[in-house]
Amino acid sequence: MNSNRAVRRPGLDELRLLAKVARMYHEKGIRQPQIAAELNLSQARVSRMLKQAVEVGIVHTVVTMPSGVHSDLEDELQGRYGLRDAVVVDSAGDEVLPALGSGAAAYLDMTLTGGHVVGISSWSETLISAVDRMPRKSVPVVDKVVQIVGGLGDAAVQMQATRLTARFAELTGGMPVYLPAPGLVGTPAVRRAMMSDVSVRDVLGTWGQLTDALVGIGSLEPSPLLQRSGNAVAEADQDELRRLGAVGDVCFRFFDEEGKLVRSTFDQRVIGVTAKELLAVPRRIGVAGGERKYSAIRAALLGGWVNILITDLAMAHRLLDAA
Fold first, then answer.
1. What is the pTM of this model?
2. CA dist., res. 227 & res. 210, Å (int)
3. What is the pLDDT of residues 104-141, one digit of tens each?
4. CB under 8 Å to 267, separation ≥6 — which residues?
5. More confident: 158 or 160
6. Cα–Cα distance, 129 to 246 (Å, whole number)
7. Nearest by Cα to 268 from 178, 180, 190, 154
8. What integer pLDDT is reported at residue 233 of this predicted model?
9. How is the beta sheet containing 116-120 ordered, strand by strand?
10. Residues with Cβ < 8 Å from 53, sequence gap 6 or more?
11. Residue 75 in contact with residue 67, Cβ under 8 Å?
């Protein structure tokens, strides 16, 4: 409806007919062709009358949010933090991880439509939960699934990182591309040596093709999975990062409370996507929630590390309540 055009007020007889048509369609569920036949009207006129019934106020459209749907909060998060999209999920008590996994799985199922090159972080329990809940696509929607952080680690848990990439590729029809290196090494010299290896360089060459990055958001204290992997941040590194103001990370790239990259000796030992490369990816999907992640998630949003956020209801409220 053009708000600049005055709406002609129908006469009483016309209003009665408009109301009759509106009730038949909206209350009784009668389809337009049947209304037209019963009232001896053309179907085109019935369609025009239904529109007119809205214009003159006979029909009011009210959108009622189903239980568990938080579109209003999602819109507020997008506006507050300049996000491309946001998904807010309900969680039962402390069971945040399964809810995040289900929400991320549904979002990816809807938005992966073809031709994607997806970078995926290796050591995230939240992403593992999401992939475990993803349905298999009937046709390929992803070209490549690329590890963007080194996937090697303790043999007992390395299979988790490998399975995450392999399973996501299997479900979406993409080709898995593994980064044959640990996510974290002992010295910058070791990192330089490994980065010059031809098998590692080949993977690095795909990072400029990424259309999507699927990442977790970490707090300064490593998750249990990361601790078991052998890629965890040592206490001495944590102390250094804390002194430099770090509150969280995406793909081992730590940032302060304003989302600015923290430059440290730790940063020079990471084998993974750089901050510049990550920020160049068009869709950066962060899946994270839970009370202890608040500072990290807010900083990640302020720094633009992710531009699509999938989080829980309590976290959404905290992020919106922040000054």
1. 0.79
2. 28
3. 999 999 999 999 999 999 778 889 999 999 999 999 99
4. 253, 254, 261
5. 160
6. 26
7. 190
8. 73
9. 85-89, 308-312, 283-287, 212-216, 116-120, 142-147, 175-177
10. 18, 19, 21, 22, 59
11. no
